[in-house]
Amino acid sequence: MKKTFLFIFAFPLLVFSQKKEIRQADKAFNTEHYVESIALFENLVNKGISTVTVFEKLADANYLNANYVQAYKWYLKLDGLNYQMDAEHQYRYAQTLKSVGLNEDSKKEMEIFERKYPNEIRTQRYKNGLNEKSILLFTNVKLLPFNSKFSDYGTAIKGDTLVFASARDFVLDNKTYARTNQSYTSLYQSVKKPSGEFTSPKIFSKNSFSIYHEATAVFSKDGKTMFYSQNQLSKNSKSKLVNGLFKIYKSVYSKGKWHNKGPISLTDNDSVNIADPALSPDGKFLYFAANFKESFGKSDLFKVAVNVDGSFGKIEHLSNKINTEGRESFPYITEDNTLIFASDGHPGLGGLDLYSIDLSDPNSEVINLSSGINSPFDDFALTVNSQMNQGYFSSNRPGGIGDDDLYSFNLAYLPVTVSGKVVDAATNEMIPNASITILDSKNNVLTALQTDLNGNFVFKDVKPNSNYTIKIEQINYVASAKSVNVYKKDSNELYPIVKAVEQIKPEVDLSNLLALNSVYFDTNKSFIRKDAKVALDKIVAIMNQYPQIMLEIGSHTDSRESKKYNLRLSQQRADATLAYLVSKGIAKSRLTANGYGESQLVNNCKDNTKCSETEHQQNRRSTFKVK
Description:
Keywords: Cell outer membrane, Membrane. Its main location: membrane. Residues 508-627 form the OmpA-like domain. It is found in: Cell outer membrane. By secondary structure, the protein is of the alpha+beta class. A hairpin with a 4-residue loop joins strand 18 and strand 19. The chain has 11 helices and 35 strands. A 4-stranded antiparallel beta sheet has the order 1-24-23-22, with no helix packed on it. The protein has a 4-stranded antiparallel beta sheet with strand order 2-3-6-7, with no helix packed on it. The termini are far apart. The chain folds into 4 domains: 23-128, Tetratricopeptide repeat domain (Serine Threonine Protein Phosphatase 5, Tetratricopeptide repeat), CATH 1.25.40.10; 136-413, Glycosyl hydrolase domain, family 43 (Tachylectin-2, Chain A, 5 Propeller), CATH 2.115.10; 416-501, Immunoglobulin-like (Sandwich), CATH 2.60.40.10; 510-626, CATH 3.30.1330.60. The longest helix is centred in the N-terminal third of the chain and has 29 residues, at 2-30.
């Protein structure tokens, strides 16, 4: 009886103990104390509690803490329970399979996801496939030498100084961040010497920042204003640190010191995490990551106008072209207005990948920055110097020193190909053997070529991020120039151009063909006005370029005065026009001058018709017809 009595009481105690452990594990998970929650849930598994909920929490805690190998282990166990995963867990399982190198298995899981959730946006993204058409070429990717065995991430470039977040040194009174089981992060700095070496990292600023969790800084152009992320930690009744919400803080540099101005006011909603600030090149917009109610996923990207007085405008939610059901974070805006960000919701290589989109082009698509910089693990927080040739990013890929590590890289652009077709503006017929000259932004000739029999031309190995001028010349056609901007080209495919040129043929009025301002005359006068000389000089240039052209100068009057008087006046105007062209070197034999009086009015200002002086002016003109 004694044994039975003890057994009856031990069983309820055991159940009570297990329920308490489950509550503790759930609380740790819900407060994002992932390392603690993993230990608690694993302890429950060791005690024989292998439920769907426990496996889900173990898998998710590892996934959200970027421990993809362990996440795979628990998602696999969850899959083995013959349990129908929901969309989120199905997708995360497929992502972890990529991270551990099981790409074919990941593909199979995404095919299952596609069948089960055909209306999911992630399904459509999966169908569209991985978009790696980036012109950015990442080379010389190196682990920075000053990484620690802890988490180092989130670089900001301030002149020769690299500012980053690190969990080294236990600056916060040896307190531990429950999510990672490491020290709370502080901002550090390292100076890059002319030799390329970095100085030993030290605390960025001791006087202005508090003990709070700091990360992801960004600086204004003048280097005097800084925005950064900070966790609003507090102490509970037992004087233990309790994680709060992330907010963006502002600090201003004056009198040789950084002065903390506290959190910026973006919203009245105090229950939202707002982090990862980034400034547009002109400083007029602040981008950030947040988990507002309207967010598509766990965190989305937003932007807000920065007013002249330092206040902020209305928050704008970036489109679902950028934001997904997953995590979008760590935005960065390059000098050419390209948004680079981290995401695990777009098709990628696994974990967080780095993506780009041209903010200047509404038709631009999100592009994966490719395996040159992305890995099956988390790759995030990319920054680039102002010359757009060197930068830094963070990753927890294997081969590093600690948890998250800092990497440097060199940046170049893959050359693109410009193709074109030259056609007649009137007939749309192809123009063969037209001369094509390519000039750079400083008008240096880069190459000269000719169109083929179909009017096509191809200009290879074009450097992107540049402006070019394409000049087109052909006999009996007006020379033409087209400005080509490959500044924003996001693919190394053909960059197509169709250029129509106007043919110079008999009866064509050169003034109209060249879109010249008309050659006008004052009332009852025949001298060449200053404004008319500008147009006539362009006629001279065309005649010098095409020595075969013969011109008839036709001059006209308004309807006022007698027809005899107007005929004589128009001839005087034609002769004056001819004389000006001859004075500029045009052979007189190529020119004829005829006065037409008031016989060819361009409007209804006939005799006894009331017209304005401007309308009469339109009739006092010279025209230039090709003979």
